[in-house]
Amino acid sequence: MEQPNLSYIIALSKGDNEFKKQVIVVLKEELSGEIENYFLHIKNREFKKTKEIVHRIKHKMSILGLEKSYKITNDFENNLADNSIENKEYFENVLPVMLDFLKEI
Q1: Signed CA dihedral, 78, 83, 86, 88: sign only
Q2: What's the confidence (pLDDT) of residue 72?
Q3: Fewest CB atoms within 10 A around its CB: which of 8, 10, 44, 102?
Q4: What is the Cα–Cα distance from 22 to 37, expressed in whole angstroms?
Q5: Exposed (0-12), middle (13-18) or buried (19+): which is 100, by Cβ within 10 Å?
Q6: pTM of the entire structure?
Q7: Tens digits of per-residue pLDDT, 11-32?
């Protein structure tokens, strides 16, 4: 499985360490709540709400340099629109990787 990185955030911040820190803080603050909401909605088979949360998390994957995961999650998001959970397992396996990475930085 690919590993998250800060390459995009570093490039985006253009040497502004305060901006870089703010982006990381926002990621940390938002991701855990979004994951909690994801599991609640997927458990209740609320596919529209699940799709919305997956969409938000997908963009955090992009910010953390998870290009392959972004593409697979995009497919998962589209599958949810058709009430399908194909790619759910892959998506759920990426979530703790993202959380662990953000805890370590």
Answers
A1: positive
A2: 98
A3: 44
A4: 23
A5: exposed
A6: 0.94
A7: 999 999 999 999 999 999 999 9
Domain ranges for the chain: 7-104
Q: Which amino acid is at 13?
A: S
Three state DSSP letters for the chain: CCCCCCHHHHHHHCCCHHHHHHHHHHHHHHHHHHHHHHHHHHHCCCHHHHHHHHHHHHHHHHHCCCHHHHHHHHHHHHHHHCCCCCCHHHHHHHHHHHHHHHHHC
Each residue of 39-97: pLDDT tens digit? 999 999 999 999 999 999 999 999 999 999 999 999 999 999 999 999 999 999 999 99
Reading the block at residue 32, the tokens are 């855990």
Q: Are 31 and 99 in contact (CB under 8 A)?
A: yes
Let me know if 98 is exposed, middle or buried by CB neighbors in 10 A (0-12, 13-18, 19+): buried
